[in-house]
Amino acid sequence: MLEKLLSFSRHHKMALLMLLDALLLPLALWSAVLLRLGGNWDPKLDPYLWIFAVPPLWVLPIFIKLGLYRAVLKFLDDRIVYTVFVGVSLSVLLLMAVILMAGIAPFPRTAIVIFWVFAMAYIGGSRFFLRGIVRRIDALDAPRRPVIIYGAGRAGLQLMAALHEGREYRPLAFVDDNPQLWRRTFRGLTVHDPLTLPQLLQDSGAEAILLAMPSASRGRHRQILEQLETLHVPIKRLPGMADLVSGEVRVEELREVEIDDVLGRDQVPPQPELLAANIRGKVVMVTGAGGSIGAELCRQIVKNRPARIVLFELSEYALYAIDQELARLAPAVARTPVLGSVTDTARLSSVLQAFAVETVYHAAAYKHVPMVEHNPVAGIVNNAFGTDSCAQAAQDAGVATFVLISTDKAVRPTNVMGASKRLAELTLQARHAAGSRTRFVMVRFGNVLGSSGSVVPLFKQQIAAGGPVTLTHPDITRYFMTIPEAAQLVIQAGAMGEGGDVFVLDMGEPVKIIDLARRMIHLSGLEVRDDYHPHGDIEIRCTGLRPGEKLYEELLIGDGVLATDHPRIMRAQEYHLPPAQLAGHLAALRSACAALDAPRAFAELQQVVHEFKAAAHTADWVAQAAGHNDD
């Protein structure tokens, strides 16, 4: 019956509510008079029975004017009390005026006050009673997932209210670190000590934990998630407070816990003057604009209002994607998407000169270690000679600042990718030593979370597929940083350089990749399958180090490092080759690459990058195939 009523049109529901009020108002007045008379009816009131039927005549129009019947029952909130209060109070005043003007002397005056109380209770109570029924029916139609909310602050209470209105989750309890909140209840949900979570999960049957602490620091998030990891239940979190305030997301939009919540540090706020120094009001170009780092650099750059941003990218689709994103993000910033390769000096020169580019962020590179290891000529040409071509074009066009995005793999490299990036650094240092008017700056950092080709997206895919999660060695470690933080630090470091500088970013503590894999599995609510847990969900399998892969990465070649004004940016003191000596090596290497002679190019690369310790089993796939064909 109730379900049929709920299926009525909006106008029919409004008519039914008005009919309900038309019955409740006379009942409230009748109850008030009887209560005032002690349950004994006064016969003197018989001629005035019409007074019990007239309140709806003026109360219903008042309620219509106040919007009482426009409110949707399921989403009623406490404001409905104010609407009913105003409407009933006005009706009582009118009732009193009618009684006085009609001269109804037998009518007990104090009954009018009692009528006000009863009308408030009948009208307001009926709304909340109907709201409860509607929500219960709605909940039965869509069974909701039972959850526990971590955080009983304002965000947690807002989340609880939002979940009560929704159809996905059913909150069962709160947990909070504040002892003063323990054993308190909010809308029937009790706040518990986090130490009781294991027992609480078992008793309540909750299937997930919702982390409602959007204003907590990244460090605090990491501590909480490390505690929750052992529970092996899925964890979702509210978005950050900045996203909530900006309106980009709502409080009920829960997100999966990302691995950077566990591994990340509290970010040092960027220095606005450094962010703006090479960007504000200038023409800026980003090479590799469609890549992970390049795209984030573009996002950070447009926030600092350049005169124009030139997007230089080889991949047509990647260029289209970042151009469309920037059009939505910063429509007022002039932008020019340009297709081209960083190995094409003529194309670079024409672009830089045509737009009078003042700052270049060079992010274009081949970075996937195993791929470059077996395609060494392509890696050297793109990473080293591409950088040199871009630098030459920048010099010719009078670019003021050129910032190279380098890598920790350039430090004592064991692979072609790292060696080619170190050679790129050497070419810029040589140009600076030769007295270039362009200021060349290099920024070196480690892995960024979520970038293309990194382990985090790969692990997510493998976990979603049921495993196994594969890594190359149980002892392998890496430095990690979020993409936005890395991009901000690159821009700030570029503003501090005087020319020929190599900056290294404080990447925090290195992370064991096997620990990262375990945490990602646990935060997905699953168990690692190993000798101790043979019935676990996901196996972690080690496949062996790949060609050129290191167990540990470093950020410095030598021991010399100088502090800067920024706590996360250091200036490295690295060796560089005299320009004449480097030119000879580059000529020999360029000749080998032009001839597609991979073995000779590989040997020349070892000559110019002194600390390059090549992997013994590195081989060019094309050279191998050609050798087999000769046989």
From TrEMBL:
Keywords: Membrane, Transmembrane, Transmembrane helix. Residues 284-573 form the Polysaccharide biosynthesis protein CapD-like domain. CDD domains: UDP_invert_4-6DH_SDR_e. The keyword rRNA-binding does not apply. The chain crosses the membrane at residues 14-35, 47-68, 80-105, 111-130. It comes from the Bacteria. Belongs to the polysaccharide synthase family. This is Nucleoside-diphosphate sugar epimerase/dehydratase. It comes from Vogesella indigofera (Pseudomonas indigofera). The lineage of its organism: Bacteria, Pseudomonadati, Pseudomonadota, Betaproteobacteria, Neisseriales.
